[in-house]
Amino acid sequence: MPLVPDRDCALCPRLAGYRAANRAANPTWFNAPVPSFGGLDAPLLVVGLAPGVRGANRTGRPFTGDYAGVLLYQTLLKFGVARGNYGADASDGLALPGCRVTNGVRCVPPANLPTPAEITACNTFLKAEMAAMPNLRGVLALGGVAHKAALRARGLRASHADFMHGRIHVLPDGLLLADSYHVSRLNTNTGRLTTAMFEAVVGDLLRHLG
């Protein structure tokens, strides 16, 4: 299975229909399954939920172009696993020498909410991607959906480890799975996730990775 779905991937009819509608309404946008950002040789994989309609679906790069990317990339820059400047544009020159960023679902879903069937269908790409990362030692899951997607990609049931912000789980194969609330505007605006909270999770995981 390839790491990236075909541009016209039809695995999820609802997402394919929404993608077609976005292409018609916004023909200059990316409007396709969003590829991961960063090298396959990275030791850390950040997994989000799905592209935002005006974010990654527009720019073609995960967490780029909407509010969620600000906290994520500023934190990765602070800890040295990203280099350059985040300009909210895929051509901003930002590089990820120490990590890779992706989503559990590669196509933008209506109302930013994929269905369980869509999450399952797209997991084959996450599984292949993780298998293709020879140096992978840690996964940062942004939210419960990403947490479950990472477990499924490693052949584990969702019940193997409960999502808990700030928790680092050691999976049977030795992979570290760290949980954080998603870096969405909703979570940051309500105070459910603060900059200090997110930096604490990232810093703790990186210390464990050495």
Sum up the structure in keywords.
single chain, 210 residues, alpha/beta, Uracil-DNA Glycosylase, subunit E, five-stranded mixed beta sheet, 10% strand, globular
Structure description:
- Helices cover 35% and strands 10% of the residues.
- It has 210 residues and is an alpha/beta fold.
- The protein has one domain (13-209): Uracil-DNA glycosylase-like domain (Uracil-DNA Glycosylase, subunit E, 3-Layer(aba) Sandwich), CATH 3.40.470.10.
- It has a five-stranded mixed beta sheet, with helices on both faces.
- Helix 3 packs across helix 7 (195-209) and helix 4 crosses helix 5 (144-153).
- The protein is globular.
- It starts with 12 loop residues before the first helix and ends with a helix.
Q: Would you identify the CATH architecture?
A: 3-Layer(aba) Sandwich
Biggest sheet architecture: 5 strands, mixed
Shape: globular
Q: Write the CATH homologous superfamily.
A: Uracil-DNA glycosylase-like domain
Count the helices. How many? 7
Low-confidence stretches: none
CATH class label: Alpha Beta
CATH topology: Uracil-DNA Glycosylase, subunit E
Estimated share of beta-strand residues: 5-15%
Radius of gyration: 16 Å
Give the rounded overall mean pLDDT.
97
